[in-house]
Each structure stands twice: as structure tokens, then as C-alpha cells.
């Protein structure tokens, strides 16, 4: 059943994104920002971790999880290091994913001819 719920939750997130594109005519940047903020708010309310427990990859793969990770890391480090932990926690939790995206983007640009 975990695969079913991952598909349903991940699909629902994608449907919401498509509605934002088609109905509200939002551009991709605005839509991504809305998803990151929604994930951050859901984590701040304590609702995103139970969603990940329920849906697995259906909730941990979409961009909403990035907002969740930002808040989650900031809160963990703030408990240990105070206000400076808010800033360092954001970078600590998300640095691996951002670094990987940059590295793979550069490799892709080297291997394939970018259209300019």
C-alpha cells in the first residue's frame, strides 16, 4: 500500500502544480516558491513529517520537501545553537542536495550542447 499512497500523494501535489499553471497562469518560479513555502508551513505546523511517514517518496521527493527540510534543519540547529543555528541549520541540511544539483547541472552542460 505504501506505493499506492506515494503515487496518490505525489500525484496530488503534481495536480495542484498543474492547476496553478493552467488555471491561475502562474509561471514556474512562482509555483515552485508556493510549494516551498507550503512545505515550510506544513513542517512548522508539524504536519509534514506525518505526511512523509504516510506517503514515503510521494511526499519526500516533490519540491515541497525542500521547504520542509529548510524549516526542519533551522529548528533543530536553533535548539542546539540558538539564533545562529537558524542560519547554519538551513545550510547544513540542504547543502548536499543543492551541491548535487549544481554538479550534475555542470556535468550535463559539459556532456550535452546547451541551446543558447
TrEMBL record:
Keywords: Membrane, Transmembrane, Transmembrane helix. It comes from Lentibacillus salicampi. The chain crosses the membrane at residues 6-23, 30-48, 83-112. Pfam families: SpoVAC_SpoVAEB. NCBIfam families: spore_V_AE. This is Stage V sporulation protein AE. It comes from the Bacteria. InterPro entries: Spore_V_AE, SpoVA.
Amino acid at each position: 500500500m505504501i506505493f499506492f499512497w506515494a503515487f496518490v500523494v505525489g500525484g496530488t501535489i503534481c495536480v495542484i502544480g498543474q492547476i496553478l499553471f493552467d488555471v491561475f497562469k502562474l509561471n514556474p518560479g512562482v509555483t515552485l516558491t508556493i510549494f516551498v513555502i507550503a512545505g515550510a508551513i506544513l513542517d512548522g505546523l508539524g504536519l509534514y513529517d506525518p505526511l512523509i511517514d504516510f506517503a514515503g517518496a510521494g511526499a519526500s521527493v516533490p519540491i515541497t520537501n525542500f521547504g520542509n527540510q529548510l524549516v526542519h534543519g533551522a529548528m533543530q540547529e536553533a535548539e542546539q545553537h540558538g539564533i545562529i543555528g537558524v542560519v547554519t541549520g538551513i545550510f547544513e541540511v540542504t547543502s548536499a542536495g543543492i551541491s548535487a544539483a549544481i554538479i550534475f547541472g555542470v556535468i550535463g552542460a559539459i556532456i550535452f550542447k546547451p541551446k543558447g
